[in-house]
Fold this protein.
Amino acid sequence: MNIQRSLSKSIKEAISPGRILVLLGPRRVGKTTIIKEVVDLQNKAVQYFNCDDPLTRGQLTDATQGQLHLLFSPYSTIVIDEAQRIKNIGITLKLAVDSFPDKHFIVSGSSSLDLSNEINEPLTGRKKTFTLFPLSLKELQTHWNASNMSMKGYFETILRYGSYPNVIMIEKEHEKEEYLNELTNDYLYKDALEYQQVRNPEPLRKLVTALALQIGQEVSYTELANLVGIDQKTVVRYIDLLEKNYVVLRLPAIRRNPRMEIGKSRKIYFYDLGIRNSLIRNFNTLDIRNDRGQIWENFVVMERLKTNACANFHPNYYFWRTYAGKEVDFVEEAGGVLHGYEVKWQCKNNDEFNSSFLKEHTNAKYECVDQDNLMELLNK
């Protein structure tokens, strides 16, 4: 049974002639499934291209107008899956839209690094982009028909195993772990190494594991370089690669007062905690873990990001820390307003941090997020 995705309606409404619909997101989050929900791939008027297939890549790479005519003309809807695998895909898509302005084009990709770079300039003003993440708490709440309070009972499972659709549908814990270990080795290393010209896999493996052990903490590129045994520029390149492949998210520090606020720093979060826990081979229950606070913070940040993306709300994301040690875990900036979120397993009196943040930023809001009010925040 498929879980209804919040983006389904928006994606269906966005399909129109003369415009490319682009669906980005990690592998196995359900991009093909959601495409099947909005387009009948069995319909004879629909043509589906899977670019993981070498033959398909050969057909679409640097295709001429005549070649595209042979491939596309019999169909009203063209679906190109894993399109980042096609060299110069942006030029090919522009040529396709110019040649067939009455057709519908749907393009998916699991690497924003390649696909976004390829299509942004050629298709300026002629595309609509969506990002599909692992399942959000709001989607799971609908699927489980759960109240805000009863959702707390599901937090531990998601914090341990993440929210990839197949992981949610698997019942036995050891099978969840097996699936995640396979998924980590498959999409993380296969895509990042094979298709992004990373010739030596070991430094990347060491780096991503080091990042997994530092979620929610400020990371130093210099320290990471020394730890992994590569230069700092390579560390930055690898982290950029991991971010563009939807493995990690970088959160920079916000700096409005250079005398007080730390600016040249960043924190790292993982898009899915199941992937993160697989990397460090730790699926233990929360009561015996010493990283419970870190994974809870990672969890809240990513759920907020998913909610915002689904609502087509795209603020700037930061964290805030002063040289005196005062910190707000997560800050959103939109329309000149800062909204700070302190993330705790259980909120207590944070007046000191609250007042410091609000004092330094005149147009700001602040709230603490814990198990009791997370669903309320996401359902606002």
